Structure formats: structure tokens, C-alpha cells
Amino acid sequence: MNSRIVMKEVEPKAYETMFSFEKYLSRTKLTPIQKHLIKIRASQINGCAFCIDMHTKEARVLGETEQRIYALNAWRETPYFTEVERAILALTEEITLIHQKVSDETYANAARLLDEVSLAQIIMAIIGINAWNRIAISTHMMPPLD
């Protein structure tokens, strides 16, 4: 793969801004597992190998199970996720695939299960990982060989 710019070296202020956004997300009501489910699922949809690698490793450290991580791309077909997690994953998919629209049904279900602040924070977390995916993919960031 051809080498491309290293964003944090070429535009450090932009990178710092992204990390400031991550600091905001770290102070939200979302659990660390909820945040990682969002990050992993959006990264799977976007095909971001760098982010999938990073966030699956972080999720494991937090206690996420291999079974749930492996089944995440087929979450609808498993009993492994709670009703709230299912609502979060549905929103993650539809916001990540925004060109297909966020359905009223998906939004209403999430709004029924979550308070407005949590819903806003989930939307912001989804937006954040999609931005990171776009940085990593467009600059060919590669996961390390362990």
C-alpha cells in the first residue's frame, strides 16, 4: 500500500481537536462497553482495519467477550445484546450509512429506551468514530502486526 500523510504530524491542531472531542465523549453517560460497541460496529461497516483492531483490543481489556465481538456484525441474529445495546447498534448502522437515512422507527425505539442526553451522546459518539474511520482509511493507517 502506498504511504500517505500522517495526519497527526501534518495537521497536529486538527488531530488535537479530534482528541478533545474524544475527551468530551469520555465524560458522557455512555458506558465504556457501549462506546466500544459503537466504535467496532461503525468501523466494521466502514472497513476500517486500524480502528477495528484498536477498539476490539480495548473492548477485551474492559471485559467484553470474544463471543459478542465476533457476533457484532450479526447482532440481530444473536441473543447476546441487550435491548438498549440493540437500539444503539441500530442507530450506529443507520447513522454510519447516513445516505440510506435514519428511520423514524430506529430513532423512536432509541428515544423510547434512552433519555435525550444519552441519545444525543450516542449520536455524537457515532459521528466521532465515523470521523476517525475516515481519517484512518483515507491516510492508510494500518494496524500493528502483533
Would you kindly provide a written description of the structure presented here, covering whatever features stand out?
With 146 residues, this protein is mostly helical. The protein has a single domain (19-67, 82-138), classed as Up-down Bundle (AhpD-like). Helices cover 68% and strands 0% of the residues. The chain is built from eight helices and no strands. It has helices at 7-10, 12-26, 32-46, 49-61, 66-71, 83-96, 104-113, 116-138. The two termini are 19 Å apart. GO terms for molecular function: peroxiredoxin activity. Residues 12-94 form the Carboxymuconolactone decarboxylase-like domain. It holds the Pfam family CMD.
Strand and helix order: HHHHHHHH
Say what oligomer this is.
Answer: single chain
Rg from C-alpha positions? 15 Å
Number of domains: 1
Sketch the major β-sheet: none
Mean pLDDT metric:
96
Protein name: Carboxymuconolactone decarboxylase family protein
GO molecular function, one term: peroxiredoxin activity
Pfam families: CMD
InterPro entries: AhpD-like, AhpD_core, CMD-like
